[in-house]
Amino acid sequence: MTDFDQDDIAAMRRENPDDLKRFMRDQLRAGNARRTTPPVVKPPPPPGHRPGAWPTGSRPPDPLKPRPPGAWAEALDRYRAGIGSKNDPCDCGGCQPATEEGQ
Questions:
Q1: 79/89: higher pLDDT
Q2: Is there a smaller number of Cβ atoms within 10 Å at the N or the C end of the chain?
Q3: Residues whose CB is less than 8 angstroms from the CB of residue 10 and which lie 6 or more positions away in sequence, other chains included
């Protein structure tokens, strides 16, 4: 029963006030049940998934190679002067220089 008007409420109050309270609580419960969304189901992990591990066939990157104390200042001076280096495009140590075979 979702359609009710003032006459229905007045009749419930006259006949039995407890019925009106129960009716109103049922109306609230029905409204709350319609509003709540079902919980989101987490999709299952892909086969072979290991939580917290690197994907199969990969590994973390290597740390940067240590540089002598003046290397950063020298590289900055070269950059400001517009002079390249033999290790271009990058002299960070983490990048792989391009080879003739890989081009």
A1: 79
A2: C
A3: none
Q: What are the distances in angstroms from CA 87 to CA 23, 24, 84, 94, 99?
A: 81, 78, 8, 12, 11
What the block records as the tokens of 40 is 């989101």
pTM of the model: 0.29
- 27-81 pLDDT tens trace: 888 877 777 677 889 999 888 888 887 777 888 888 888 888 898 888 888 888 8
Structure tokens that stand for 58 in this block: 């990969």
- Which residues have CB under 8 Å from 89's CB, separation 6+? 95
Residue for token pair 């006030």: 17
Q: Cα dist. 63→60, 75, 78, 92, 93 in Å?
A: 9, 20, 24, 10, 9
Check residue 43 and give its pLDDT: 92
Looking at this protein, which amino acid is placed at residue 49? H
Report the distance separating Cα 13 and Cα 23, nearest Å: 11
